[in-house]
Design a protein that fits this description.
The protein has about 220 residues and is α/β, with parallel strands linked by helices. It has one domain: Vaccinia Virus protein VP39 (Rossmann fold, 3-Layer(aba) Sandwich). Helices cover about 30% and strands about 30% of the residues. It is built from seven helices and twelve strands. The chain has a seven-stranded mixed beta sheet, sandwiched between helices. The protein starts with a strand and ends with a strand.
Length: about 220
């Protein structure tokens, strides 16, 4: 097991790992490895868009350590669980609107004190802004047509002035009818009009086809 340029992420060959916050326990059936008394969880890029971004060349800044995180679209907690491994002292607020997905997310949070799940709609940040407060990192992974608007409204509601964002753009959730490249360009333009600069753009294929990760700053 070797360290990588991303703080807290280890590598064995092509595979990425995070140090398991719950030794002996998996979250989504991932492989476990023990090295020198430390247990690691394999971070599967086919299951996690953030892992795909790392494998595809994201810079070390993409995983800069925050104190408070707002994660939109937590689903069952796959990626969230690895962020929980990486940032054990952070407060990670996880918004998920599907009751079916929220149940396993809540079960995960009961075992991991740094996860704070919210059953809520990411399109309505005013409903959880008071609970979340100001965060350093806004992470979004939602399957909606207006992904840029959702991101910018949540940023205005909850993100600190010097905070940063990670937006996992699901192109085919925006439209099925137009070329993916055009949707990516329009999304970048929309972020720019809202006062955001795309510091990194990372295509996530072959792990997630027609998905792009944007690392953004004000």
């Amino acid at each position: 097991m070797e360290p990588t340029r991303w703080p807290g992420v280890a590598r064995d060959g092509r595979d990425l790992y995070t140090r398991n916050l719950e030794p002996g326990t998996t979250v989504y059936g991932e492989a476990l490895r023990s090295v020198d008394g430390v247990e690691y969880r394999r971070w599967d890029p086919w299951r996690s868009k953030l892992a795909a971004a790392l494998v595809n060349g994201a810079s070390e800044e993409i995983l800069g350590r925050p104190d408070r995180v707002l994660y939109l679209g937590g689903a069952h907690g796959t990626t969230v669980s690895h962020l929980s491994d990486l940032w054990p002292d952070a407060a990670i607020y996880v918004v998920e609107k599907s009751p079916a997905s929220f149940a396993p997310l809540l079960a995960l949070a009961r075992r991991r004190a740094n996860l704070l799940p919210l059953l809520a709609d990411a399109q309505l940040p005013e409903r959880y802004r008071a609970d979340v407060g100001e965060v350093d990192l806004l992470y979004q992974d939602v399957a909606q047509r207006d992904q840029v608007r959702i991101f910018t409204e949540n940023a205005e509601a909850c993100l600190a002035p010097a905070g940063r964002g990670l937006l996992m753009l699901k192109v085919r959730s925006v439209t099925q009818r137009r070329p993916a490249a055009a949707i990516v360009r329009e999304s970048r333009s929309g972020l720019g009009r809202a006062g955001w600069r795309v510091a990194e753009e990372i295509a996530l294929g072959p792990f997630a086809r027609e998905h792009v990760a944007f690392a953004v700053r004000r």
